[in-house]
């Protein structure tokens, strides 16, 4: 509602400028606040008082002019001038009630749809022959929610899993895969990728013949040798098969067809280097090919040199990201590209994109956005590690989440079957872990705390899941089907009105996630909505004697709208709702 009034006032200022009432160069920062007392209205603004002085007008007269130039809106029942020049708005509760009714019948709860775009979302991006570790969860879940939010709003989303599937380490990995196959022909599965990588490295460091073979395989792989290519593919497939288990478990919407690893851009790289040279952007420097960028300074204050090809002919991570941005615009037809990558790669991306723009590969009208995030920390404020200081495997974290969720549910008595219980445990565990990450402003580091996330109280997934389940049980008790409710919404109680006002802000919350790539905006919204619902449910009985039928229907409709928004909202977050728990 605040947003609605805000928007109306911005239009009004524009109207007043074109009507000559306000000077056109006047900066107007519109602020809307909730009224302390209901009798004074719902929302108020001090806009007239703020603009009076710079506009050389009397505040109350300016307030009258603002009201006169407000665009027509059925949302406002009444506007009043108060005190020295405040403007108070009274909402039309019929309008609000009508909005809630419309939400119940609309498949997307009446969310405002923007003009559809093609958006590439780059996320997850683990490395081949390495097992996914806890830190991968951030990019994986944040990016996934952005992708889901965009899709929900009708955009065409291209998920790009930019896996690390190229580099000189592949010679060593192929040589080791071959050794394994020779030694135990049947046991080709890389069950333990971490061990695989370490052992390959050990062979490489300790066995000269092995190292020689490995170096030879790098050259052959780059030359497109069929045997090396097949072995390489095997490594990629085996890794991604294992990663897929994590994706499925976390309900992350990535599949095999979203894999667009670094290797995809190999063929473009020589051409790009040649083109950057031809455009005078890249120069030879000490045998390497370098782009000097004035935008970045080295420690001596000189233009920073970014290497795009090494003296041995090898290309770099930056070269790949230049090609990658070009490909996403030219070939995939992106209108916008969102990258969910940890904040330590910010400079890398800025350099790659500065070169991309200078070369004219992607026009300025197509945003390349870095949605950076901080680290996941333990309770001690240090990077989240195992007790012995090792990297925590993602699979171990997910297993622990399920164990802890099972223990949490053990304490609640329920009449669920074993199968239903297992399903509830899974939904709660995965929801809790994802939500812990999603609900924090991604730009900062965050502390991973089991007790906080696996709780039915506070801003957690179990709390939201529980709110949803509770509404379902209200429907069961009332013996009604939420889909077939009839009747009208009337907003008599304050708790009803507050809930209705929150409900209609769902659209802003989802749009916020898509625009800013910030899932926590939706989390905060759903948490506040659940709080408003709980207050409503305590203040406004439904299945009690003495509640007349029209009121009961109206309240059930409010329940239905809340359940719908919770289900859709949690759906955008990739978190399951439960009918019972
Ligand atoms: N594989 C990289 C890493 O683990 C992340 C890749 C992110 N995407 C990109 N286009 N650079 O650090």
In CATH, the topology of the largest domain is named Isoleucyl-tRNA Synthetase, Domain 1
Strand content: 5-15%
How many domains is the backbone divided into? 4
Structural class: alpha/beta
CATH architecture of the largest domain, please? Orthogonal Bundle
Total strand count, please?
13
Report the mean per-residue pLDDT as an integer: 94
CATH superfamily of the largest domain: Isoleucyl-tRNA Synthetase, Domain 1
The number of distinct helices, counting runs of at least 4 residues, comes to 20
**What proportion of the residues is helical, as a percent range?**
40-55%
**Main sheet properties:** 4 strands, antiparallel
Span of the ends, CA to CA: 34 Å
Rg to the nearest angstrom? 29 Å
Low-confidence stretches: none
Give the overall shape.
globular
Summarize the structure.
Monomer. This protein is α/β, with parallel strands linked by helices and 581 residues long.
Description of the structure:
The protein is of the alpha/beta class and 581 residues long. It folds into four domains: 2-91, Arginyl tRNA synthetase N-terminal domain (Gyrase A, domain 2, 2-Layer Sandwich), CATH 3.30.1360.70; 169-251, no CATH class; 265-370, 3-Layer(aba) Sandwich (Rossmann fold); 394-572, Isoleucyl-tRNA Synthetase, Domain 1. It is 51% helix and 10% strand. The chain has 20 helices and 13 strands. It has helices at 2-18, 47-55, 59-69, 93-105, 136-152, 169-183, 193-206, 208-222, 226-249, 269-278, 317-330, 346-358, 394-410, 418-438, 450-453, 461-478, 494-503, 506-516, 520-539, 549-572; strands spanning 32-34, 43-45, 76-82, 86-91, 118-122, 156-160, 282-285, 288-297, 303-309, 336-339, 368-370, 376-377, 446-447. A hairpin with a 3-residue loop joins strand 3 (76-82) and strand 4. Helix 7 packs across helix 8 and helix 11 packs across helix 12 (346-358). The protein is globular, with a radius of gyration of 29 Å. The mean pLDDT is 94. The chain binds arginine. Arginine (ARG) binds next to helix 11. Residues 122, 125, 127, 162, 164, 321, 324, 339, 341 line the site of arginine (ARG).
């Amino acid at each position: 509602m605040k947003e609605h009034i805000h928007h109306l006032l911005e239009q009004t200022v524009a109207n007043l400028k074109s009507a000559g009432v306000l000077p056109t160069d006047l900066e107007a920062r519109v602020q809307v606040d909730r009224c302390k007392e209901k009798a004074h209205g719902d929302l108020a603004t001090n806009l007239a008082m703020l603009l009076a002085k710079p506009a050389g007008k009397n505040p109350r007269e300016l307030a009258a002019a603002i009201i006169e130039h407000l665009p027509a809106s059925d949302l406002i029942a009444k506007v009043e001038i108060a005190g020295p020049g405040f403007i108070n708005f009274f909402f039309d509760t019929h309008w609000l009630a009508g909005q809630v009714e419309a939400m119940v019948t609309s498949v997307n709860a009446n969310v405002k749809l923007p003009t559809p775009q093609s958006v590439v979302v780059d996320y997850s991006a683990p490395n081949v022959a390495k097992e996914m570790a806890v830190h991968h969860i951030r990019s994986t879940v944040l990016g996934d929610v952005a992708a889901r939010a965009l899709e929900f709003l009708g955009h065409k989303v291209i998920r790009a899993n930019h896996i690390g599937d190229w580099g000189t380490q592949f010679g060593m990995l192929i040589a080791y895969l071959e050794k394994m196959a020779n030694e135990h022909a049947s046991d080709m599965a890389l069950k333990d990728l971490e061990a695989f990588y370490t052992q390959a490295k050990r062979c490489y460091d300790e066995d000269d013949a092995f190292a020689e073979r490995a170096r030879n395989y790098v050259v052959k792989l780059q030359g497109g040798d069929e045997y090396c290519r097949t072995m390489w593919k095997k490594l990629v497939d085996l890794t991604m098969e294992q990663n897929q288990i994590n994706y499925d478990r976390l309900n992350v919407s990535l599949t095999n067809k979203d894999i667009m690893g670094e290797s995809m851009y190999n063929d473009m790289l020589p051409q790009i280097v040649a083109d950057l040279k031809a455009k005078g952007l890249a120069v030879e420097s000490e045998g390497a090919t370098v782009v000097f960028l004035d935008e970045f300074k080295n420690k001596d204050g000189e233009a920073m040199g970014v290497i795009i090809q090494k003296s041995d002919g090898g290309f770099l991570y930056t070269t790949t990201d230049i090609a990658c941005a070009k490909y996403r615009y030219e070939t995939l037809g992106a209108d916008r590209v969102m990258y969910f990558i940890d904040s330590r790669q910010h400079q890398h991306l800025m350099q790659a994109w500065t070169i991309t723009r200078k070369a004219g590969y992607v026009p300025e009208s197509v945003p390349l956005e870095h949605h950076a995030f901080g680290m996941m920390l333990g309770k001690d404020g240090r990077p989240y590690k195992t007790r012995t200081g090792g990297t925590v495997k993602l699979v171990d974290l997910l297993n622990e989440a399920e164990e802890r969720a099972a223990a949490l549910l053990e304490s609640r008595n329920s009449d669920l079957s074993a199968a239903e219980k297992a399903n509830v445990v899974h939904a709660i565990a995965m929801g809790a872990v994802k939500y812990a990450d999603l609900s924090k402003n991604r730009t900062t580091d965050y502390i991973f705390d089991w007790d906080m996330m696996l709780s039915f109280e506070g801003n957690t997934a179990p709390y939201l899941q529980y709110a949803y389940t509770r509404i379902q049980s209200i429907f069961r008790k009332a013996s009604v089907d939420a889909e077939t409710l009839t009747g009208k919404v009337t907003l008599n109680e304050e708790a009803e009105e507050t809930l209705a006002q929150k409900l209609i802000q769902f659209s802003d919350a989802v749009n916020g996630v898509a625009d800013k790539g910030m899932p926590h905006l939706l989390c905060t919204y759903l948490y506040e909505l659940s709080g408003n619902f709980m207050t409503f449910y305590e203040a406004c009985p439904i299945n009690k004697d003495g509640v007349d039928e029209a009121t009961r229907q109206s309240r059930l409709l409010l329940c239905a709208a809340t359940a719908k928004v919770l289900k859709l909202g949690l759906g955008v977050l990739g978190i399951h709702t439960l009918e019972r728990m």
